[in-house]
Amino acid sequence: MVQVLKEELRHAILRAAQDEFMQYGYVSASVKRIAEKVGVSVGNLYRYYAGKEALFDSVVNPVFDELESVIKNHVKQPLGNGEGHIFELVIHALTDIIGKIRIPLLILIDSSKGTRHEDTVLKLHRMMADNVANHLQAYNAKQGREVFAERTAWPVSVAFMQGYFEIIRHHPDKEDCSNMVRQYVSFWYQGLQAFF
């Protein structure tokens, strides 16, 4: 019974921290306010989490891992064979993130200044650019000439990711957000499909 209560308290602290980081960002977030929201002393909170940075990591690490997995495992697959299947995988992965971790994702991309995560958006852009570059290389090989320079991958990737982030920022309703992501990815997919 005591262990159950400890886990409930750990989750309550994490939820309060998530709210705090969303509202104030990492730099202005207060461990004291988090403890007050949960109804524990700051000292007791530190028994569960070593401090503000540990709380922040607990909120955002699963999000980064999930996005990294989506980018590396779904977008990496070359278009051209089973495009519809890949399209549905990408749609499912990007909308699934919204349902599970929308708020922590927003915290990661918008409120991580002052943490080791503040360059996460840049890392995500790089991962996406690597995958787009792979698609461009495959397309160029298929054409027997360089149609698209590899450096084109960077602006395409940044545009795609920033558009996705904007949808998440401005569409808090899960169903509406999922609908927008579906339309957004469909728009990009149809454009890319023209090359294959």
Total helical elements:
8
Helical content class: over 70%
What would you report as the Rg, rounded to the nearest angstrom?
20 Å
Shape descriptor: elongated
Instruction: Kindly estimate the percentage of residues that lie in beta strands according to DSSP.
Output: under 5%
The helix-and-strand class reads: mainly alpha
List the secondary-structure elements in sequence, H or E.
Answer: HHHHHHHH
Taking pLDDT < 50 over at least 5 consecutive residues as the criterion, the unreliable ranges are 78-82
Give an overview in words:
The protein is an all-alpha fold and 196 residues long. Helix content is 80%, strand content 0%. The protein is elongated. Pfam families: TetR_N. InterPro entries: Homeodomain-like_sf, HTH-type_TetR-like_transc_reg, HTH_TetR. It comes from Cohnella silvisoli.
